[in-house]
Amino acid sequence: MRTDTIFYQLFQTFPSLLFELLGQSPDTAQIYEFSSREIKELAFRFDGVFLPKAPTAQTIYFAEVQFQPKTDFYWRLFTEVFLYLGQYKPIHDWCAVAIFASQNLAPEIPMQYRGLLMSQQVKFVYLDELATAVDTSLSLAVTQLVIAPEKSTVEKTRQLLQRTQQEPDAAFRQKALELIERILVYKLTHLSRQEIEAMFELSDLKRSKVYQEAKEEGKLEGKLEGKLEGKLEGKLEGKLEGKLETIPSLLKLGLSVEQIAEALQLEVEKVRQVAQKER
Predict the structure, then answer these.
(1) Is 219 found in the same domain as 94?
(2) Which of 6, 153, 214, 218 is the right S-S partner for 174, CB 3.0 to 4.6 Å?
(3) What's the CA gap between 220 and 211, in Å, rounded?
(4) Cβ neighbour number for residue 13 with a 10 Å cutoff
(5) What contacts 32, CB < 8 A, 6 or more positions away?
(6) CA pair distance 66, 107, nearest whole angstrom
(7) Domain tally for the chain?
(8) Domain extent at residue 274
(9) Any idea what the CATH number is for the domain that residue 44 is in?
């Protein structure tokens, strides 16, 4: 499941989600602006950056989500953080939030970064601990759907849809509905979008007067029916191009093809192809 796309949209739809995961008040999100910032040097991109937009906010939050084992997770995370700090030179303090699907996916933090743990500039969130939580906000409930096993996905989705329909803001209901549908498309890969719509009566909800009015009034920040997904895919393609453009410079620094492939998270053969063109 493409968690980078899902969590980008989760943070965009529910800016309060990060602060709820950290045990802070959801209202904290009101003094922050969510964005996804790219680090130009190696075309790194955070899953989410929360930038202070009010004098009372003193900390920049860097959110990174991991659903697969990755031994170099912290090496890359801290590299991205310090490249960002060097590139943008913010006046605020910072905090890195490492969000794992479960605690067993979290690798050991390298001893070289032990000082960051002492400074409490790194926070940890394990989403599987949300699975049994009850009486949660809508944003946390949608996040529970992301990590829910497939056997419980259907029931959780029906409960979420009922809850979503009770939201007083029509535009917000529309955004939440689209997000739920997108999660289902990624999770239930054996079903088509049409089958998913039929299973949960999403087509009927989309034809409702309230939904159509919210759509026509342009209250949504993103576009409907895959527009946001296409935009993010374009960003990911640009990210790949940025990595490929970096390879010649790294070759000149004396790095091997294998070292470059590991650093940029590319296939060795792809790096080798670029290296051959540079000869």
Answers:
(1) no
(2) 214
(3) 11
(4) 21
(5) 15, 50, 51, 52, 53, 57, 61
(6) 11
(7) 3
(8) 242-278
(9) 3.40.1350
Q: Give me the torsion for CA of 241, 243, 247, 249, rounded to 10°.
A: 100
Nearest by Cα to 48 from 91, 3, 115, 93: 3
128 is a domain residue: yes
Burial 131-149 (b: 16+ CB within 10 A, else e): eeeeeeebbbbbbbbbbbe
Q: Give dist(CA 160, CA 99) in Å, integer.
A: 23
Residues 41 and 171 in one domain: no
CB 39 within 8 A of CB 80: yes
3-state DSSP assignment of residue 29:
helix
Separation CA 275–CA 133 (nearest Å)? 51
3-state SS assignment for residue 149: coil
DSSP string covering 191-249: S-HHHHHHHTTHHHHHTSHHHHHHHHTT--SS-TTTHHHHHHHHHHHHHHHHHHHHHHH
pLDDT in tens, the chain (279 residues): 556 678 888 998 999 999 999 999 999 999 999 886 665 555 567 788 999 987 777 899 999 999 989 999 999 899 889 988 988 899 999 999 999 999 999 999 999 998 888 888 999 999 988 866 666 789 999 999 998 888 888 888 988 988 888 888 888 888 888 899 888 888 888 878 888 888 777 765 555 544 455 455 554 444 444 554 555 445 545 567 767 777 877 776 666 777 777 767 788 788 888 888 766
